[in-house]
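[User] Once you have settled down, look closely at the record that follows, and write a paragraph about the fold.
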Amino acid sequence: MTIELEQDAKAGFSASDCSAAFYEDSQVKLWNGDCREILPTIRGVDCVVTDPPYFLPAAHYAVRGQTSKSIGDLSILEHYFRGLLQEIYDCLTPEGVAYVFCDGQSYPIFHRVGYSQWKRIRPLIWDKGTSVNGYAWRHQHELIAYMEKDGSPKVPTGDGDVLRENAVKVADREHLAEKPSKLIMRLIQKSTKEGQTILDPFAGCGSALLAARDCGRKAIGIEMETKYCQIAVRRIHGELMAGNSRIS
């Protein structure tokens, strides 16, 4: 079914099934639950912008000294993301696109599992501007897997595939992997029009939902952890009360 956002706000209700939203207003709908259970109920989305957990399991790293590295380690991610990309593909309209944050280890998996289904998959580079002190070469960028379905329109552009936006300062983050609103807005504005619908199945503290709303789009989010749903709702209400203007 195509998701239609209701006019009545429903805040603070933790969903026990896919039909009840944790929060809902005229532009934003947020579910508290497992995206693999909720995604099959969503259809007709124009664009997905999301940042899934793309690292290998933490328990795996805890015993790294006791085991040998193997390319087979990546099969843990491949199995999960094969199913996830299929769910994302099914949620989108025939003209839809997806932006999925990843890194150098996980991007090849997205390309491998999606190559035969999506019209085009290519990496975008997010240059954060600075790196964190440490050893050898430090990370200053993340990758974004950009994926187009067969019906996605050609968008005339002179924009390069390196996007330079400062990362959210660690002290200012409400989620460990929080992404800057300006970066998300650039992705949304590139691939959608006002009034269209953005989906983030790993909504975290709601940055993509806020960016979509501020760009004049509708937003659907799914987040498993209740505490981040609560933060997202607080941010939505806080920005509304602060009188943030919509960005066109």
In short: The mean pLDDT is 84. Residues 45-196+209-218 form a domain with the Rossmann fold fold (CATH 3.40.50.150). The two ends are 28 Å apart (CA to CA). The helical segments are 35-38, 58-62, 75-91, 107-114, 181-191, 207-214, 226-241.
